[in-house]
Specification:
Oligomer: single chain
Structural class: alpha+beta
CATH architecture of the domain at 47-166: 2-Layer Sandwich
Number of helices: 5
CATH class of the domain at 47-166: Alpha Beta
CATH superfamily of the domain at 47-166: OmpA-like domain
Strand content: 5-15%
Strand order of the largest sheet: 1-4-2-3
Helix content: 40-55%
Largest sheet: 4 strands, mixed
CATH topology of the domain at 47-166: 60s Ribosomal Protein L30, Chain: A
C-alpha cells in the first residue's frame, strides 16, 4: 500500500511540476526618447530684404565736405537705415568705397577716400554690425559720378558708395 501512496504522490508532484503552456504577452513598448531639440536654423533673409539691401546701396551712403571725413547727421541716419537692413540679412557682407573729387593728388585722395570708408565702417560697427562683414576700399578720384569741373559735381563725387558682396543665407 505504501507503494500506491508513493506512486500517487509521485504522480501528483509530477503533474504539478508540469508547466501549463504560457501565453506570452508582448513586451511593454519602450517609448523612444524624443530627439534632442535642434536649434532653429537661422532664418533666411526674405528675398525682398536682400533686394532692399541692394536697392539701398544703389545710392551713396554718405557725402562729405571738401577735404573732410566727418559724417553729417543725414549720413548717420542713412547709416542707421543700412544697419537695420544688415541686421535683417545677417549673412550679408558689404563693401564701402570712399571717393573724392578731382582736386588733390592721387595719393592724397586715395588716403582721404580710405578714411571716409573707414568712418562709415566704424559707425556701423558701433551700431552692432560685425566689422568682419564690412570691407573698405578707396577709389580716390578715379570714379566720379559727375565728370564736370564745378562745385556741384565735386560735392556729388565726395562720397561713400556701398556694394553688396554676399547676401545669401547658409540656411537656405
Amino acid at each position: 500500500m505504501r507503494l500506491i501512496y508513493v506512486s500517487v504522490a509521485f504522480l501528483v508532484v509530477a503533474g504539478c511540476a508540469h508547466e501549463q503552456p504560457k501565453t506570452e504577452s508582448p513586451p511593454p513598448a519602450v517609448a523612444e526618447a524624443p530627439p534632442a531639440p535642434q536649434p532653429p536654423p537661422a532664418p533666411a533673409p526674405a528675398p525682398d530684404e536682400a533686394a532692399e539691401l541692394e536697392r539701398f546701396l544703389s545710392d551713396p551712403i554718405a557725402h562729405f565736405a571738401f577735404d573732410k571725413a566727418d559724417l553729417t547727421q543725414e549720413d548717420r541716419q542713412r547709416l542707421q537705415g543700412l544697419a537695420a537692413l544688415l541686421k535683417k540679412v545677417p549673412d550679408a557682407r558689404i563693401q564701402i568705397a570712399g571717393n573724392c573729387d578731382e582736386r588733390g593728388t592721387e595719393e592724397y585722395n586715395l588716403q582721404l577716400g580710405s578714411r571716409r570708408a573707414a568712418v562709415a565702417k566704424e559707425y556701423l560697427a558701433n551700431l552692432g554690425i560685425d566689422a568682419q562683414r564690412i570691407e573698405t576700399i578707396s577709389y580716390g578720384k578715379e570714379r566720379p559720378v559727375d565728370p564736370a569741373h564745378d562745385e556741384r559735381a565735386w560735392a556729388l563725387n565726395r562720397r561713400d558708395d556701398g556694394q553688396v558682396l554676399v547676401a545669401t543665407s547658409s540656411a537656405r
